[in-house]
Amino acid sequence: xxxxxxxxxxxxxxxxxxxxxxxxxxxxxxxxxxxxxxxxxxxxxxxxxxxxxxxxxxxxxxxxxxxxxxxxxxxxxxxxxxxxxxxxxxxxxxxxxxxxxxxxxxxxxxxxxxxxxxxxxxxxxxxxxxxxxxxxxxxxxxxxxxxxxxxxxxxxxxxxxxxxxxxxxxxxxxxxxxxxxxxxxxxxxxxxxx
Length: 194
Known about the structure:
three-stranded antiparallel sheet; alpha+beta; 5 strands; transmembrane helix; Mannose-Binding Protein A, Chain A
């Protein structure tokens, strides 16, 4: 009795089979034992067979290269375009800031040194003798942002901008960028531009 195996659990499927056998041959239960699956070697063999069939099937399938979806490549292009646009946009302001603070002296720009204080007519003659011209008030105001401290310290400079009908002209303070009208007979510093 010690070697006797327990019969398999009865399920609803087993009951139907059992009941059908009883009707056919009379209920001889001892002869109707089902084979239990062997959990050892045959199960591993089945797994290996299934795995080999799957790998063969996979080899037979045509290999498709992974396609990059149109959406992702478009997104990359849009992000790249936006990045370049932002670089150009902010680069413009960085360059403008640099140019505003960098003096443009020399052959094609402003004089490196200011002329002595003179009347307005003498200032015009001074610039024409140097093959340059006297700047207007807006040019001087812009130049005040990038002029040297040495030139800014001089104070007021003549411009070509007229101030009314009396023959007065605008002077610009390079230290502050402010401008005001002055009679042409007053003496102020001169700086010329090409």
